[in-house]
Amino acid sequence: MSELHPLPVTFRPGRTRAILLTAGAAIFVVITAVALLLEKLGPGERLSFILTGALMFGVLALLARVRVVADEAGVTVVNIASRRRLAWAEIVQVNLRPGDPWVFLNLSDGTSLPVLGIQPGIAKDKAIADARALRALAEARSVEGPQG
Q1: How far apart are alpha carbons 31 and 49 in whole angstroms?
Q2: What is the pLDDT of residues 37-79, one digit of tens each?
Q3: 107 within 8 A of 138, measured Cβ to Cβ
Q4: CA angle (141 as vertex; 140, 144 as ends), nearest 5
Q5: CB 141 within 8 A of CB 105
Q6: The sheet that has 67-70: what strands, in order across it?
Q7: Nearest Cα residue to 66 out of 57, 56, 55, 77
Q8: How far apart (Å, rounded) are the C-alpha atoms in residues 99 and 50?
Q9: Whole-model pTM?
């Protein structure tokens, strides 16, 4: 088995996050600049341009917030619009199959939970390493218990 990460550890798609936040900031700045430079716009129209840019940035920031935080007690999965706390015993299996857009956790209640915080899109090797690390932590915690 590979060496376990010290806890707590956070897994997130760093490059994707940087791209999303940079794009969001650029979109906001450009739309705001256009609103301020167009002379024929009234104050309400300028405000609607700026609010649209802020809304676009907010959506991209929401997409960038995905992560997985593992600590001694369990795992917190933060997806786009949800957050779920799991005890280590609830995680049966950590899966990242070829072609999967992100990791899936098979849970003890028979359901599967997508984990958008580990996704192979831009950084495939990092996602595979993160999935293996999370799998090793889950296997070690399910056998040994949370105390190690």
Answers
A1: 6
A2: 999 999 999 999 999 999 999 999 999 999 999 999 999 999 9
A3: no
A4: 80
A5: no
A6: 9-11, 67-70, 74-78, 83-87
A7: 77
A8: 39
A9: 0.82
For 32, 49, 53, the CA distances from 26, given in Å and listed in that order, are: 10, 14, 9
One-letter amino acid at 133 equals A
pLDDT single digits (tens) 102-111: 999 999 999 9
Handedness of CA 95, 130, 120, 104 (dihedral sign): positive
Q: For residue 57, give both structure tokens.
A: 């940035």
Say how far apart CA 91 and CA 94 lie, in whole Å. Answer: 7
pLDDT at position 6: 83
CA distance to 14, 26, 32, per residue, from 69 (Å): 14, 29, 35
Residue 131: what residue type? A
Task: For residue 82, give the nearest of 57, 116, 131 by alpha carbon.
Answer: 116
DSSP character at residue 114? E
